[in-house]
Amino acid sequence: MKIVGCVVLYNPSIENIENIIRYIPLLDHLYIMDNSDKINEAIHEQLQGFQTVTIIDMGGNQGIGQALRQGLDYAISEKADFCLTMDQDSIFPVDKWSTIKVYLERTDIDDYGIIGLNINSASTDVGLVHVNLLPTSGNFINVKNYLKTKGFRAELFIDSVDYELNHQFYKIGKKIAYINEVSLGHTVGTPLYKRFFFKKVTVSNHSPIRCYYRFRNNYFLYREDKKFYRECRWMDRKRLIQILLYEKQKKKKIKMILLGINHAKQKKLGPLNQEDIQ
C-alpha cells in the first residue's frame, strides 16, 4: 500500500512546519503546495532536507482547490493508493498510524472515496462513522476512486472545495467515513469562546473575505443539489446567527456575505476581485 500526502501552505508559521515534519516519515512522499504570497526560503530549505518531500511553488495564492487538484495529480502519477490531504495548521495523530492503516486495508476499501479522521474529538466507540460531508484535513482519499470523479473544483478557490468532492463521490456511489477513535487536531478560523446562558459556544470568527467565499460557494452548491447540500445551508444559518450575536466587524461580514450570495446567483466563481468590494 502506497500512501502519499498533500499539504497546502499559505504564509505558514514555524509551528505549522513543525507539525508537518512530524508526519513526513509516515508517508511514502509528501507534496507541499505553497500558495504563499511571498516564499519563505528558510522554511523551504528546512523542508527540502527530507528526501521524500517535494515543494511546489504555486506562484502566489491560487486557491485551495487548485493546489489540492495539482497535489492529487502528483499522487496519481506516483500510482499511490491513498493521498492524505492536510491543512498546514492541523496536528496529525502520528501515534495512531498503525490503527489508521488497519482501516485503509479493509477488504471493502474500494467502496470508499474517503476515510477521514475525527476532528478535535476521539470517541471510546471504535469504528467508522459514515457521513455526507468531511473537511479536507486528515482525509485519506482513495486515488483509484478519485480518478472516477472530475477532481477538486478549482474555481471554488477556497471554501467548500472538500464538500464538492464529497458530492462527487456520493454521485458515483462511494462512501465517506471517519475513524471514530482517532482524532485530528484542527483549528477552524480564529475561534472565539463565548457563553450563551450556561452553555459554552465556540465561534469560528472568520474574516469578512472568508465569509464571502464560504457563503458564496455553499449557496452556489446548494442550488446545484439542494438535498445533498442542505446541511451546508443549516451550517451557514447557524454561522450567521453567531456573527450577529458574538463577532466584531458585523457590518463588513454581512456585506461580504450578501456579495457572495449575489455572485453565487450569477455563477461568478474564482478569486474575488478587489473592485467588486467597492
Compact description:
It contains nine helices and ten strands.
The share of residues in extended strands comes to 15-25%
The CATH superfamily of the largest domain turns out to be Spore Coat Polysaccharide Biosynthesis Protein SpsA, Chain A
- Radius of gyration, CA atoms, in whole angstroms: 19 Å
**Total E-strand runs:** 10
Which secondary-structure class do the elements indicate?
A: alpha/beta
Shape: globular
Top CATH class of the largest domain: Alpha Beta
Question: What characteristics describe this protein?
Answer:
278 residues; 21% strand; Spore Coat Polysaccharide Biosynthesis Protein SpsA, Chain A; 9 helices; alpha/beta; single chain
Notes on the structure:
The protein has 278 residues and is of the alpha/beta class. It has 2 domains: 3-184, Alpha-Beta Complex (Spore Coat Polysaccharide Biosynthesis Protein SpsA, Chain A), CATH 3.90.550; 192-276, no CATH class. The chain contains 9 helices and 10 strands. The protein has helices at residues 14-23, 41-47, 64-77, 97-104, 143-146, 161-171, 208-224, 230-246, 250-265; strands at residues 3-9, 29-34, 53-57, 82-87, 112-119, 128-130, 139-142, 175-184, 192-196, 199-203. Strands 3-2-1-4-7-5-8-6 form an 8-stranded mixed sheet, sandwiched between helices. A two-stranded antiparallel sheet has the order 9-10. α7 packs antiparallel against α8 (230-246). It is globular. The mean pLDDT is 93.
